[in-house]
Amino acid sequence: MRMVMLLLLTLTAALGPQSPALAPAPPEPFGAGLFTDTYRGTFTPDGNSLYFFRPVGGNENYRIFSSRRSTSGWSVPEPVDLGGDFSDLYPSISRDGRRMVFSSYRPIPGGSTGKPNAHVWSVERTERGWGTPAYVSSVSLPGHYHSWIEIGFDDALYFRRTTPDWKKTESLRAAWTGSGYAAPEPNADVERWKGWRADVTVAGGSPGPNASLVFLDVAARHPATGKPASDIWVVEKRGGAWLEPRPLGGGVNTDGFDVFPFFSADGRDLYFVRDFSAFYRIPLAAALSR
Fold this sequence. Notes:
mainly beta; 5-stranded antiparallel sheet
């Protein structure tokens, strides 16, 4: 026994003092200097093109931009030509890369001449670029505000719809039929958490890269100024049951606005927008660490 103890003490001394486990690296800026005034992004399936939207001046005046990756890095973002000078926002690329769905203030077919609003549009890729956008009447409700447009891991369309009086916002899901989108239904994986706790305000949610993850947009307050802020929370499904929501780890959430989660083409990296000014990236596993 004494010899065993002496051997252990000798081995410990030889190894030196033990270092504590390394904490996950915090999120890092993505494309610093290129992607400024950024809002939610989406990658093409090959991961070599990034689409996002940003304000271009004036109230609710946005445009969709794209950047392409080459051996020398990411290109300077350029506006995407979708025909006409309209406010376009929330682009999302289908998993086959052939379709982009987005929200737009462009006039809807047969619409009135009243105040415009953001509805859902879709456009197909052609040999010459993007074709002519088409109004998605199966999911759009005239006069309502449609936002957070996202094509999910299951090809369904996830989005939020806000009433004209801005008093109610609902998270919805519309299944892909193979040729279009079915009528939307409430996204129960998000809606169930509204009113879950009195001290947590869930504004909406987003699908994860697979069926086991849902990301929630949780309203917050800056601890020093008391001004509005936002955090990203996650809900995980284990053993067929959803766990309770919790804030993302890894340094994702700060005192300001951390919003608009989206993912790399392989689902391994989480991207998000911080303070509507820049993209940040972190391995998804690190963000999910407790």
